Amino acid sequence: MAAEDQVAPLAGIRVIEFSHMIFGPSCGMILAELGADVIKVEPPGTGDRTRRLTGAGAGFFPMFNRDKRSIALDVKNPEGLALARRLIDSADVMIENFRPGAMDKLGLGAEAVRETNPTLIYCSAKGFLPGPYDHRAALDEVVQMASGLAYMTGPPGRPLRAGSSVVDIMGGAFAVIGILSALRERDSTGEGCMVTSALYENAVFLCGQHMMQHQVSGIPAPPMPGRANAWAVYDVFDCLNDEQVFVGAVTNTQWREFCVEFGLDDLLEDPELQENSDRCDRRDQFIPRIREIFATMTKPALMDRCEALGLPYAPIGRPDELGDDPHLNASGGLVDVTLADGKTVKAPALPLDFDNKRPAPSRSLPRLGEHSRSVAEELGLSAGEIERLENEGVLENG
Question: Annotated catalytic residue: which of 89, 168, 341, 353?
Answer without folding.
Answer: 168
